[in-house]
Design brief:
By secondary structure, this protein is an alpha/beta fold. It is built from 4 helices and 16 strands. The chain has 2 domains: 101 residues, 2-Layer Sandwich (Alpha-Beta Plaits); 107 residues, Pectate Lyase C-like (3 Solenoid). The strands form 3 sheets. It has a 6-stranded mixed β-sheet with strand order 6-8-10-12-15-16. It has a 5-stranded mixed β-sheet with strand order 1-2-3-4-5. Helix 3 links the parallel strand 3 and strand 4. The termini are far apart.
Length: 231
């Protein structure tokens, strides 16, 4: 087995497996399988977060990683990456995601291109953009903002450290400012969530079937969640 292709350490919620961002993917998976097979009792039933760094991992490769772990009884709980390709693949497979360093290059679709340096005068918070409807049973976790171009269906959930923007109907559960940010907001073209939380505040939508859909923003004011027209 090659050195430095797989690194494993214990974290609060289970195990963190860091995979080489440069070595050939099949070799990395082979080394990971060998490492697990050598310590089966250590990994048995573990909840695992996999960090692939800047490597863009498309859906087929993400599926192969999940299969390697599934065959060994290991739960792939979350994927950490700085690549938009990797995060999209994880979301497509209903995996939790974490992206703490990635700032998209607005002038390029190349995940390997360096991100533009942020001005020290700007307050930059990272975000995740999802270009599809979030179906029932899906859960989205992200440290920054979450933008959805589509609906958020009943039975789905979004938990974001920052704002949540839904360019569609919001009917599931949403928690903005999940790390305690009371300046976070939730915006939607049709705001009828089953449950809405901002930081430590919580509310539900009134049962008003006569209400016409309209763009609205939810925010904290006077220590409570208020909903007003999205201007």
């Amino acid at each position: 087995m090659r050195e430095n292709t797989v690194a494993i350490k214990g974290i609060k919620d289970g195990l963190l497996i860091s995979l080489s961002p440069t070595e050939e993917w099949n070799l990395v998976l082979s080394d990971l399988a060998t490492r697990i097979d050598q310590q089966t009792s250590f990994f048995a039933g573990a909840k695992v977060t996999v960090d692939v760094g800047e490597r863009p991992v498309p859906k087929d490769q993400m599926s192969s990683l999940k299969a390697v772990l599934d065959r060994r009884g290991i739960n792939l709980w979350a994927v950490s990456s700085e690549s938009r390709t990797t995060l999209d693949a994880a979301i497509n497979l209903d995996l939790r995601t974490s992206n703490v360093n990635y700032v998209p290059n607005r002038n390029s679709d190349d995940d390997s291109a360096p991100a533009p340096a942020a001005s020290h005068e700007e307050d930059v918070t990272l975000g995740l953009m999802i270009r599809r409807t979030i179906r029932s049973g899906r859960r989205i976790f992200h440290q920054g903002h979450v933008v959805v171009f589509g609906d958020v269906n009943p039975g789905s959930e979004i938990i974001a450290g920052g704002d949540v923007i839904v360019w569609g109907r919001l009917r599931g559960n949403v928690h903005a400012g999940a790390n305690g940010d009371e300046n976070a907001v939730v915006c939607a073209l049709d705001m009828t969530p089953n449950q809405l939380r901002i930081a430590g505040h919580i509310t539900t939508s009134p049962d008003d079937k006569r209400r016409k859909p309209r763009p609205e923003t939810a925010l904290i004011r006077d220590n409570q969640i208020v909903v007003e027209t999205w201007k």
